[in-house]
Amino acid sequence: MAGTQDDAYERSVTQQQEQPQAGVPGSASDPSSGQLQFSRYQPRTALRHGEYTKRSRPLVDQVNNSWQEIEKGYYAVETDDRELRFCDLEDENSCPNTTKGLVRSKRFRKMILIAVTVALALYYAWISYVRPRVEQEWDVKQGFLPARLNGTYGIARSGHFDGTLIQWLDPKLVPGGEADPEGKRRLVFVGDIHGCKKELLHLLDKVGFNVDTDHLVATGDVVSKGPDNIGVLDELIRLKADSVRGNHEDRLLEMSKTVLGSDLDSPDEAATSHGSVKDAKLLKHFKHRHLKYLKDMPLMLRVPALPHASSSWRKDPHHIAEDIIVVHAGIVPDVPLEKQNPYFVMNMRSIDRRTHVPSALHETKKGKSSPWMMIWNWYNDRLVHGRSMKGFHSYTADEYRRQQVVTNEGWLSRGWQAISGNKHATLKPQVVVYGHDSKSGLQLHRWSKGLDSSCVGGGKLTAMVLDAKGETHVVQVGCKNYKA
Amino acid sequence: MHLPLGLLACFPVVVHSIIGIPTHPPLEPLPRRDAPVLGVGSRSHRRHQNAYPDEPDKYFHEADFDRHYDGRFANKRLSYDERRKHLTALMQTYLSTMNDIGAETWIMHGSLLGWWWNRKILPWDSDIDAMVSEKSIHHLADYYNMTVHHYQLPGLDEGRDYMLEVNPHYINDSMESANKIDARWIDTDTGLYIDITTLRRNRTAEARGVEGAMMVKDNHHYMYDDIFPLRESKFEGCPVNVPFAYSEVLIEEYREGALSQTVFAGHRFEPETQEWIPLRHAVQQNKLLPPGP
Q: B238-242 and B263-264: which strand pairing?
């Protein structure tokens, strides 16, 4: 303790004080000054903290027993008091008393106020912005996970298709492809024409259609409802245009199997229906080449990714650098193309969020449907960002086994996934070009392009022109209303 | 089960023996009677027909031990495997006969759902549903009522007799709770049958301005454009017709789950083989969950 050192120091100081007292002026022997007077004989150290100031009296006199009056603190407890240690209301340092003191303090109150405000703001942000998004994201994701309760669409044999299911675009027609090294070719996609020949010619003129370098691709429903169906077909045959089969072509083809073969007169409306009578009349005017053209239409047309188009990470709906699939109405995401139900590919407008069963209606009666292109865009966004597809349904035993091996190993295998390639690692995002949905009109998103702008109902006829670099632009012409 | 010679089963050697009873347009209320069955059916046994005393107008009667059997020809309920085998034969002979006659018919309801899943009858289905057009039912009623058709099917035992019986109430267009079925194709050996209903024009809806409305006496409603033009496809190895908008018709009747649920009625759909496999415990107890469709 400091006491011993002080004693030694004091002893030496007092000795020195006694000695020079005789002949040194301004000596240290001034008890009333209260300060330690330094003389040349004294040590150089300054006053130390807690040092006794009075040097004349013995140290012992300055000792008091005030330590005995110190209140019993944490070290003076006995076993009985231990429970009340923090909560003893009489104790100044106990919990309730400290809290009371804290609460009363202004600074603490200010801190509490700030904390509460921040918490409220965060909660509000959670409720109104973050949680709905998270819920929606989860809701959409649910549809992709196989669940015994919801089932999975795409497993059953489902409908059949009379004709080519999937066809690739002729490689010679691909812009920037092997037959077009300079990249001069273009592809012109057109929405539902429905027999509006005048508008089609006007549109091709406006686009600057050149038969040598441009190729026309229609999204189906080129006939029915409009004024000049035969004319449109002849024009398409002349231009050697491609088209996918739409629901009206489907209907005409099925009807042709019975109506054309029979010698009976066309059935009247009382026995059939208004639409059926019109279709039968149209069929009677068809020549062999028209019927062949309809039969040759595939369900889906695929265009490979353009060689000269650079893939862009930008969210630009006007740039296409990926594979394109052309269908009439839509496709279900995450289901292989061969397993898509042909009827729905030609008719769907929405899909059920849980089961992914499509519907021709915009919204099903149960109310759990979403427009199919929303789910499609969500799925392809996920693909392009390389996000996890863990748990998504797989359609063959091979895929399932590969997925099992991968998911069992966890995060370390993610790197391996990229090298070995499971189903989803090798999947690339694709752009869908479609028509059929005239009520929604022109719908351009990153991964889906809806081109039906209701020409036959007095809207517009839309064309999307794709050049070799992957850039697109939209051209439209106005249409007369033929539905009346 | 599958018959070994597949498509050939649809065009077997046939010996028609026709017992025709002419039908007259009813001038007075129809007397209640059972169709005469002497000479029909390969065994004589106690009749198990349910009498339905509170529905005196009901023409078709079912067995008292199971409503999916005709009591005049059945005396016991068949096991799971036997029933599947006989239902398949029933379907094939029906389609073959209709094709021969030239009557327009297509599959609906539970059979259409089976067609969707794997082009076969759903294993837990106890009957088959088919529909005919109005012209067809008139033709069948005029010339083929109470006819018996003999089929020699490969893979099954001796030849079997199938009877086509038309309900005289088919003429009545309005809804009738007792006579919803317009005709039956009955296996006289086992008592299994196909319910045949007629798709009629919905004259009341058309009077109100709804164009193309169709109805069936068992209270189903359709639009003409959803059914016609019919599509040709295969079912149990035989050519069939299915409605044009088959997916919509199925979803309308059975909701979306029917097209995507792979576990149903004690069975599980195996994607690799495209078959409905019965869950073991259900078969062991010889008791499957109540038929869905």
A: unpaired
Tell me: do B206 and B273 sit in the same domain.
no
Does residue A264 belong to the interface with chain B, where contact is any CB pair within 8 Å? no
Distance (Å, whole) CA B269 – CA B257: 13
Q: Is B252 on the interface with A (CB under 8 A)?
A: no
Q: Which of A24-33, A79-88, A162-171, B121-130 has the lowest mean pLDDT?
A: A24-33
In chain B, the number of structural domains is: 2
Task: Say if residue B237 is in the same domain as residue B177.
Answer: yes
Chain B residues within an 8 Å CB radius of A156: 116-118, 259-260, 269
Q: Which domain holds residue B195?
A: 5-258
Whether the Cβ atoms of residue B194 and residue B130 lie closer than 8 Å to each other: yes
pLDDT surpassing 60 at residue A312:
yes
Judge contact between A447 and A431, C-beta under 8 A. yes
Is residue B267 domain-shared with residue B238, that is, in the same domain? no
Tens-digit pLDDT profile for residues A323-381: 999 999 999 998 888 889 999 999 999 998 888 889 998 888 777 888 999 999 999 98
Q: Cβ–Cβ of B272/A397 closer than 8 Å? A: yes
Compare CB distances from A276 to B224, B260, B269 and report the shortest one's residue: B224
User: Looking at the structure, do residues B153 and B268 belong to the same domain, yes or no?
Assistant: no
Q: What is the DSSP letter of B37?
A: -
CB contact under 8 A, A359 and B251: yes
Pair B150, B183 in one domain: yes
Same-domain status, B163 and B269: no
pLDDT score, position A68: 77
pLDDT exceeds cutoff 70 at B248: yes
Query: What global pTM score does this model have?
Result: 0.75
CB of B247 within 8 Å of any CB in chain A?
A: yes
- Convert the pLDDT of each residue in B121-162 to its tens digit: 999 888 899 999 999 999 999 999 999 999 988 776 678 899
Give the separation between CA A84 and CA B248, rounded to whole angstroms: 75
Residue A60 contacts by C-beta under 8 Å, 6 or more apart in sequence? none
